[in-house]
From TrEMBL:
Regions that span the bilayer: 16-38, 58-83, 90-107, 113-137, 149-167, 173-194, 263-283, 295-316, 328-350, 362-390, 397-417, 423-448
Full protein name: Facilitated trehalose transporter Tret1
Primary location: membrane
InterPro entries, A to Z: MFS_dom, MFS_ERD6/Tret1-like, MFS_sugar_transport-like, MFS_trans_sf, MFS_Trehalose_Transporter, Sugar_transporter_CS
Keywords from the UniProt entry: Cell membrane, Membrane, Transmembrane, Transmembrane helix
């Protein structure tokens, strides 16, 4: 019973950590809404009945998808420069402005360039948020629940994707921005009540502010309990030791130590597996995939079902990540996605030569399996594992570099995915995704370390 209480997110001592996690994830939820908005909207704006004054073709669609990656790249670089200089809270506040602007542009769009910039800003918000939010959560959360709280980043994104699917499917084009603009206002306002993280304040030698922050996130309104006081003293000592060891400025030599290089290798494979498995592309172009698969079920209904499956998948990872660990979930996820994509590719391939109309439900079932398994590990735990891979001294810089690399991959995969579907067909596209997932599985099986319970201060 004591161990179950330790892992409970509703434990009285950690409930403010949960509250803070929910508040900062308003922006990741909003980013998900922006991502999910695209798929059903593409179906609308490609027809003569488009709610806009213009139509889009395959070239514009590929750019609409890939602008997310370019925005994410700029967001990564911006936050990487500001994270240690200005603090976690400043970077968190910063995200509200670009996110509000993207919905204004969507509402006012008079040509496709408005939508390009809107998608760019959606990417900026996501790229910046994917960097600062996991680091913020990892610094306020107890190690016993850190994995569960950090995995809520992708749970929030996927919940937002589902809401984006639903809103853009059933509401008029110009209604969605009116509803979505509420999110950045609520996000900015709620964050006013959260203090800066204790580790960052200690690094800035702001001892009193750090102690106040620590008490807040430990739900100690008066003086600290003995256990919490000991934990704070341990945190302060660990940071003092770390700073004593790191008195020399960070240099390139710190990035080429053996532990650093092993972490970079794992992060590169993790990022490539995340993107080349196709899961993120599937989410952005889900309606197009169901059209290409030959499914006669309503594509928008299928897309919404997949949105629900994403949430169930990430929630599964949230439950088990601090119990069975990161590595096992990653192995199950990558192997499952590989097998699912192989079968999906075979189904669509044989569907060209045989009448498989009586199996029109198969693409939906296969995509449910692929998306669920992708979200219990490869997607749901991506940022959990990424943050925990690197040594403490280089964590902020290395995580920033890794997310920049991820953003380049996002741009490339979202730009190429609709072109692959158009010129090579869905079967070859799925088999490519399967091969990527299978190679990722092999690497993880051989080299991925388990990071459950790893200290965020000490290596």
């Amino acid at each position: 019973m004591t161990k179950l209480r330790q892992y409970s997110l509703l434990n009285a001592r950690t409930r403010y950590q949960l509250l803070a996690t929910i508040i900062v994830n308003i922006i990741t939820f909003g980013h998900g809404v922006g991502v999910g908005w695209l798929s059903p909207t593409l179906s609308k704006i490609q027809t003569p009945d488009t709610p806009l004054d213009f139509q889009v073709g395959i070239a514009e669609i590929s750019w609409l998808g890939s602008m997310l990656g370019l925005g994410s790249l700029l967001g990564n670089l911006t936050i990487a420069l500001l994270l240690e200089r200005m603090g976690r809270k400043f970077c968190i506040y910063l995200l509200a402005g670009p996110y509000a602007c993207l919905w204004i542009l969507i509402y006012c769009a008079s040509n496709v360039y408005y939508l390009y910039v809107a998608r760019f800003l959606c990417g900026f918000t996501g790229g910046a948020g994917y960097l600062v939010v996991p680091i913020y959560i990892s610094e306020v959360a107890d190690s016993s629940i850190r994995g569960s709280l950090t995995s809520m980043v992708m749970l929030s994104v996927n919940l937002g994707v589902l809401v984006g699917y639903i809103l853009s499917t059933y509401l008029a084009y110009h209604i969605v921005p009116f509803l979505a603009i509420i999110l950045p206002i609520a996000y900015f306002t709620a964050n006013l009540f959260l203090p800066e993280t204790a580790p960052y304040l200690l690094r800035r030698s702001q001892l009193n502010a750090a102690e106040t922050s620590f008490r807040y996130y430990q739900n100690q309104k008066g003086g600290m309990e003995q256990v919490s006081k000991a934990s704070f003293d341990e945190l302060r000592l660990a940071i003092d030791v770390q700073q004593a060891q790191n008195q020399t400025a960070l240099t390139y030599r710190d990035l080429i130590t053996k532990p650093a290089l092993k972490a970079f290798a794992a992060s590169i494979v993790l990022s490539m597996g995340y993107q080349f498995s196709g899961i993120f592309s599937f989410i952005n172009y889900m309606s197009t995939i169901f059209d290409a698969s030959g499914s006669i079920l309503d594509v928008n209904i299928c897309t919404i079902i997949i949105g629900v499956v994403q949430i169930v998948g990430v929630y599964t990872s949230t439950i088990f990540v601090d119990i069975i660990g990161r590595r096992i979930l990653m192995l199950i996820s990558t192997l499952g996605v590989a097998l699912g994509c192989i079968v999906f590719g075979c189904f669509t391939y044989f569907g060209q030569f045989y009448d498989l109309d009586y199996l029109n439900w198969v693409p939906l079932v296969l995509m449910i399996i692929i998306i669920y398994l992708g979200n219990i590990g490869l997607i749901g735990l991506f940022f959990v594992v990424l943050v925990e891979l690197f040594p403490a001294k280089i964590r902020s810089l290395a995580t920033s570099m890794s997310v920049v690399f991820l953003s380049v991959l996002v741009f490339g995969t979202l730009k190429l995915f609709p072109l692959l579907l158009h010129y090579f067909g869905i079967s070859i596209t799925m088999w490519f995704s399967a091969a990527s997932s299978l190679l990722t599985f092999v690497y993880f099986l051989l080299f991925l370390p388990e990071t459950k319970g790893k200290s965020m201060i000490q290596d």
